[in-house]
Design goal:
- The structure is a single chain.
- The chain starts with a helix and ends in a 12-residue tail after the last helix.
- Helix 4 packs parallel to helix 22, helix 9 packs parallel to helix 22 and helix 12 crosses helix 13 (350-359).
- It contains 22 helices and 22 strands.
- Helix 17 (465-472) links the parallel strand 18 (456-460) and strand 19.
């Protein structure tokens, strides 16, 4: 019989004993008197609790459950079997309620591990075979049917695929992926069957990293919870002292028993773990992985935020920033022609150009007679139009720049951008500017962090001052540190941490030392289980910045609810102890009152599973 089943059995025995004793007491019929029935129903709970306390003491743990053992034993010795059985029901019921609350709080975390991919469809010369995910090797071609989970991380081989990434990133709507895009294990094929090539083994893929983080989240205790455990060492002697004083002053041992009963068990021990597990679970539901309650508690107290630039505040690639078109030319038509030509290119910008065209739902044509001049540009024909794209020298040779293009050339002269000049026939038709663009949600994310109490914002980057200044000018930042190597990043984090609890947000391998040095390291882990994800305390699975602010809000709310539950619960218990010491509460009434307090604090702690905003779950 497992521990949860034993607790339920003890509760049933105590409840049946209470009911049977009340029936005998009411009718006067039965082979045993009511007191004997209540005593017999209490003894299994006493024995099980004594064994549990001895086992915990043997491994160096001591809990407040000892008060329950003392109160039940004292009730039996003082010939108060009804009080004893009510305390037994209260204690057994509290443990069952705690099991329920923990199970409720851990449900979202368990759902993540339960849906781990288990099989894969591997292509071979003879067809397709179904194998265990552990047998998938890097480079294997896999078939993913509609409704199946992606077994490992990989690269999409087909033209497109529709994926439900909600279990990994928290994004509610399916997303489209194109050929060559990175795919992550644990996501669901929400469209037609497609092919992919495995890029990682199962135990090194994204979902395996998620499962490991979830396991850590369920075992690592927060300092707040460890403090609660230590508090239990002082609660037993304090309770015995108050009950002894009540007995000494009144001369009535029943008053001492009442004091013991209302102090059993302690809301401090029940509320804190449930609240923190609930907070970790709520974060996981939004694609935010907290590596244990300790990370969540530390995040709640952060006051300084440090951000890496590339890939964190910015998208981290060469994205289309602006299209300048010649008079009479449409930007969408230019982009359609350029993207059609770039289908035949292997240049680093080709994917960005084609992706920008697909985002605008432009239909691409097949290019003809394409010739690529390495390092300069390429020429070809699209829709019977001669088109060339590349550097200014490649596109224009010695021709002067038209007046309409001069303003852009001056504006981007010293900026860290790439400029692609496009000619149709013999004339310049447009100029495309590419650079590391600011994330669309960066403004909102930083504003939300300010409202959450983050008082200092720092951008920390290895890029040069010009690139850093261009991005920082668009954001509400307090400090900019540029040209930083990994050692400089660590030194900056340590300096900030010396003045206030500090979080570091980054995504690259070179951010890992700084993430580890911060009070809380947050990794933007959307691109896979990188070294930065391993070094971080919190991993944001979505490729967005706003979940960072959401993580802070969840952490703050969780800690506030845990503290609220503890303070209110202990205050109510203290008032009840004083009333019991003054003879205002009987042992039976005290047991029922304390049970009500315990139920209230646990239900309050479970609020961490919700969003905390009006009208939202």
């Amino acid at each position: 019989m497992n521990e949860s089943a034993l607790r339920r059995t003890l509760l049933v025995i105590a409840l049946l004993g209470l009911a049977g004793g009340l029936g005998v007491w009411r009718t006067g019929f039965g082979p045993f008197d009511a007191g004997t029935i209540w005593t017999v129903a209490t003894l299994p709970v006493v024995v099980a609790l004594a064994i549990s306390i001895l086992r915990d003491f043997w491994i160096g743990r001591f809990g407040v459950d000892a008060i329950a053992l003392v109160s039940m034993s004292a009730a039996l010795l003082l010939d108060q079997p009804l009080a004893a059985v009510v305390v037994a029901i209260m204690y057994a019921g509290g443990t069952v309620l705690e099991d329920f609350a923990r199970g409720r709080a851990e449900r979202n975390l368990k759902a993540l591990t339960d849906r781990s991919p288990r099989v894969a469809n591997r292509k071979s010369a003879s067809g397709t075979e179904t194998i265990s995910v552990d047998e998938v090797g890097v480079g294997d071609d896999l078939l993913v049917r509609a409704g199946e989970l992606l077994p490992v991380d990989g690269i999409l081989l087909d033209a497109s695929a529709s994926l439900d990434e909600s279990a990994v990133t928290g994004e509610p709507l399916p997303v489209r992926r194109g050929a060559g895009d990175t795919l992550r294990s644990g996501t669901l094929n929400a469209g037609e069957t497609f092919s992919m090539r495995a890029s990682a083994l199962a135990d090194q893929s994204t979902y395996a990293a998620i499962v490991r983080m979830v396991a850590a989240a369920q075992t690592v205790k927060a300092p707040f919870i460890r403090m609660a455990d230590r508090f239990a060492l002082f609660l037993l002697p304090a309770t015995l002292l108050v009950s002894g004083i009540a007995w000494f002053i009144s001369g009535d041992p029943i008053r001492a028993l009442a004091v013991l009963v209302v102090a059993t068990p302690c809301p401090l021990i029940l509320a804190a773990p449930v609240a923190f597990i609930g907070g970790v679970s709520r974060a996981a539901r939004g694609g935010i992985l907290m590596k244990g309650s300790a990370a969540l508690e530390a995040l709640a107290q952060v006051r300084t935020a440090i951000f890496d630039k590339t890939g964190t505040l910015t998208i981290g690639g060469a994205e289309l920033i602006e299209i300048e078109a010649a008079p009479g030319r449409g930007t969408d038509h230019l982009l359609q022609l350029l993207a059609s030509l770039e289908q035949a290119s292997h240049h680093v910008l080709a994917d960005s150009i084609i992706r920008a065209a697909r985002d605008r739902q432009l239909v691409l044509s097949h290019p003809h007679d394409v010739r690529e001049h390495r390092g300069a540009g390429l020429k070809g024909r699209v829709e019977n139009t001669s088109i060339a794209a590349g550097s200014r020298a490649f596109a224009l040779a010695d021709k002067p720049l038209p007046n309409w293009a001069k303003n852009g050339e001056d504006r981007y002269r010293d900026a860290p951008v790439l400029r692609v000049f496009v000619t149709l026939g013999e004339h310049l038709a447009g100029v495309f500017t590419f650079g590391d663009a600011l994330r669309a949600d960066a403004h909102d994310a930083l504003a939300n962090l300010r409202s959450a109490g983050i008082t200092r914002m720092v951008m920390l980057t290895g890029d040069d001052g010009a690139a850093a200044k261009r991005i920082s000018s668009m954001l509400d930042l307090d400090v900019i540190v540029s040209d930083a190597v990994p050692a400089d990043k660590v030194a900056t984090v340590e300096a900030e941490k010396a003045t206030a609890p500090t979080m570091m947000v980054g995504d690259g391998i070179n951010d890992a030392p700084a993430l580890a040095a911060a009070t809380v390291g947050i990794a933007m882990g959307a691109r896979g289980a990188t070294a930065s994800s391993e070094a971080a305390d919190v991993v944001v699975l979505a490729d967005r910045l706003k979940p960072v602010a959401e993580a802070v809000r969840i952490a703050q709310r969780t800690r506030a609810i845990a503290l609220q539950s503890i303070v209110v619960g202990l205050a109510l218990s203290a008032v009840a102890m004083v009333a019991a010491a003054m003879g205002q509460i009987t042992p039976v009434a005290g047991a029922l009152l304390q049970e009500g307090i315990d139920v209230a604090v646990i239900l309050n702690a479970l609020r961490t599973l919700g969003d905390g905003r009006l009208g939202r779950a």
